[in-house]
What we know:
Beta-lactamase, globular, 5-stranded mixed sheet, Beta-lactam/transpept-like
Amino acid sequence: MTATRLPISPPRLAFSIVAAAVFTVPLASPVAADTADGIADLRADLDALLADPALEGAVSGVAVTSLSEGDVLYENEAATPLIPASNIKLLTSAAALDVLGADHTFSTTVSAAEAPAYGRVEGDLYLSGTGDPSLTGGAFDQMAAQVAAAGVTEVTGDLLADDTWFDTERLAPDWEAGDEPYYYAAQISALTVAANDEYDTGVVNVTARPGAAAGDPVDVALDPMAGNLSIENTAETGAPDAEATADVTRAPGTNVFTAAGVLPAGGEPFSDLRTVHEPTDHAVHLFAAALEEQGVKVRGDIARGTAPEDTVPVAERESQELGALLVPFMKLSNNGHAEILVKAMGRATAGEGTWEAGLAELGPALERIGVSESGFEAHDGSGLSRTNQLDAVTLIDVLQAVSDEPWFGTWEASLPVAGVSDRLVGGTLRARMQGTAAAGNVRAKTGTLTGASSLSGYVTAADGEELAFVVMNNAYPGAAPRGVQDAIAVRLAEFSRWSPTTSGLSARADESSSAPDAELECSWAGTC
């Protein structure tokens, strides 16, 4: 696969012309002196926060720009290419809005070679998808009900899944093989099933519940269950004081889910998300079950096939517009949505629903938005790839440039909001910066892989000044330094050009290094 590679922007001066000018104004100007003091205090405080022990030996690309005043307030290693983790989604989502439009929808069609007659579809019935990430079990039920409402009771041929809108490459080439069972690395298909109302695609909900007493079998369920999935269950109910060791795994290349281990009697059930192998097969088998429930009998097989161009629609479904789908995508850092958008961009522009074609659109899209010298290397759209590279200069330019786009309000509203408990508002920031000046204020994208963590977005400063900021940390020695990132964001929320801010910063910096953390995006690890 050919990676998108654009020139890395040259380093920019840490002081803008405006900021530098303040230091040349005579001291007789108290307003200018106050401004200089406010900016100087901010820079000193951010330097202190980046000296936190949690960042010993780390590389931190940091940039802060005032959208209100147009000047650069702070930069640190801002031109150094770093692993951005999920901050790459800021580029993916902005490019998708430029290429596809905020009103883009994903269509799913059920069609036949001829219109149904006398309750029958003569020949094959096709289920064709274009990548809709919101196809829940209920959506398949609704399409099956449409088929039945058209008077169909029998399909004489096969039920065939057409996923040719995208290619058949299910996983990005440089994703780590060990991630494949976990929902944040789900396989990508133009026909896929969303397991829940948050639209986690290509996965199933796995639940294992203990029996009433020790020795009883454990009840294991997959949802949505379909005929292409099977369960092998050796899990047991243990004594009430037994250690819970139950897990449900799937062997690579199969859809055999194996439950093993122990759940204590009276204890909590095991619950998690697990990926399925070949999401297209899961989708068509789920639709077959929905048709059967509606009294529609398929005489032939359930398989894959390409629908002829002149088929007659029997049922159709349009997704919500992209602007609405951005909310679960960005708030919860949904990797599957990001990769679907990459392939959708490739299909829209090059007629090829591939990673290569879609990633090639990121650079031109950013150029159209106004990022003239972008420096990044993208190998996926989600940030799961550790070969992605992005510098803070480029990302801060993106945050500035998109603010002039007509869809900016929609895009900004999709960002997590610090300290707001509602998952579809606070998202991956719902438990961070609570009780601070940043709560309900900072709107930013998170991102964490082992050794790489980021926080970038917007904050309103104390005097109402709008700031854009980027914090990308790589190669830190311990847990992800989210405490440091949060302290930076809080300090920006407290920033005033006109009055120095010194309250409590040293204590906050000391506390930041011991903030609880995980080595993955919190939504991936189930910790937010």
